[in-house]
Structure prediction request, 390 residues.
Amino acid sequence: MVSVLIAPDKFKGSLSADEVARALERGLVEAAPHARVSRLALADGGEGSVAAACAGRFHREEIVVSGPTGRPLTAGVAVHGRTVLIEAAAVCGLGVLPGGHKAPLTATSRGIGQAIRYALAGDADTIVLALGGVATTDGGAGLLQSLGAVLAHEDGTAIGPGGAGLADLHTVDLTDARAALNGVDLVLATDVDNPLLGPTGTAAVYGPQKGASAKDVRQLDSALAGFVRRLAASGVADAAARTAAAGAGAAGGLGYAGLMLGGRVCSGADYFLSLLGADELLVACDLVVTGEGSLDEQSLSGKLPVALARRARRHGTVVHAVAGRCTLPRDRTALHFRSVQALTDLTDEDCANDSALSARLLTRCGQHLADRWVTGCPDDTMPADRLALP
Prediction:
């Protein structure tokens, strides 16, 4: 009996990782009912990280924190023993903006600090920040303030929210914030390696996605640079050097704030693969199906499907990929995947914004994989009418 592991990331804006896995499973089981199929919904530090952790040993706890605009919201954190995982996207993400209205200059990460305080109150000794998908570009200023850091105007009053608030920063003192995390392992899980500042920094690269105009981007980058200067002037010896660290620009600068608190950056993809026991599952299966919304140049730098494929190679397990779209030529994907299917090759419709269509296409992809690689179709490609929608 052939054993198949379906282990995708989400198709952002369309389907969750679990929905992707279930759609592929329907097709596989329909075409190869004898196959033993298991599912593993994955995440790499962005949206869906709490759900992915809770698919393993963690359990979900609900907390009330400040959202990106300061309004209270209920978010889930994942807890296992004395380890707490906080998903930044669930606290201050683009997806939780009231009415979807972006606030590039004033969105705050204050709720992340509140979630950390919740973890500390429960005696956590390991706190994992899953960094990605945020609406903020405040360098983690809100997080730091929630943990007791002083970020003040010249008159001693606290600065306002967001990157815009940093423009008025005069006095910085991280003493209390650093003391709050004394003895805690702060893990910064991200697959973004951008620095904090400059043309490849967090404002320039990710600000436009959060609604920032070209003028806003310049203002935010300048405010973040001023933040760094004030930190250095306050006696934080590595403040300037840390701006260039891989991951400092993650999540609007939350990575940088985490580094200032003694945190360590790790690959979000590898963290979740280890967390969910991927190696044990890879040993026990004959082939793997993975995927993500866009298989592109960034994927090759170690995003989740490629990270999974690298682990599978060590176990001699073949990996196939399914993506919403694939912008890479076959010679770029062949090292990692035996085959690649892209939904955009199967329809002229906008499947990225049509979850029902994406699910139907994924089911067809599952059928194709079963016919070709499980039941043994002699050709590498199925007839067009097999993949086409009815």
